[in-house]
Amino acid sequence: MENRHMTAVSKSYMGSTGISVSNLERSLDFYTRIIGLKKIFEVKLPHMEEAIMAFEGRPETRIALMYHADGSNPGLKSRMVKVSFYVPNPTEVMEAIRNEGLKIIREAVPVPEMRNAIVGLAYDHDGYLVEIVKARET
Q: What is the CATH number of the domain that holds 56?
């Protein structure tokens, strides 16, 4: 019985994580130009629009930018959210975030508690904590 469950779990995966945004175009620009994501598809409903984004060649790792056309934007009221991105050059990405005029919490530096991973922290336009981590070289 347990083996059947494990087989089902191994075929399961997470589709995307969604965050509410106050301005879809501005967020699309930030996550495309600064983070390097590409819009892979969009969903337009009467009350909400979603832009689903992923890194090129990595469509299984997605983030959904959700704009509520009715103005409700429920996620913007209590957003203890951190979104992590693994990038080849975190220093360069942090500089691009700074050039956007956004708040840098911590520069991209080695963090001993994380096996000296190079990690930077900043806020996006909607106040989400964006963690920039140096991707492992493969």
A: 3.10.180.10
For residue 20, count other CB atoms closer than 10 A to its CB. Answer: 21
Enter the tokens of residue 31: 């996550």
pLDDT at 17: 87
64-72, long-range: CB within 8 Å, 24+ apart, which pairs? Answer: 64/16, 64/17, 64/18, 64/19, 65/18, 65/19, 65/21, 65/24, 65/27, 65/28, 65/31, 66/18, 66/19, 66/20, 66/21, 67/20, 67/21, 67/22, 67/23, 67/24, 67/27, 68/20, 72/47
> Hunting for tokens 């990595």 — which residue is that?
58
Residue 13, pLDDT > 90, answer no
> What confidence tens digit (pLDDT) does each residue in 23-62 have?
999 999 999 999 999 999 998 888 889 999 999 998 888 9
Q: Confirm if 98 and 52 have CB atoms less than 8 A apart.
A: no
Helix (H, G, I), strand (E, B) or coil at 30: helix
Q: Considering its fold, how many domains does the chain have in total?
A: 1
Range of the domain at 42: 15-134
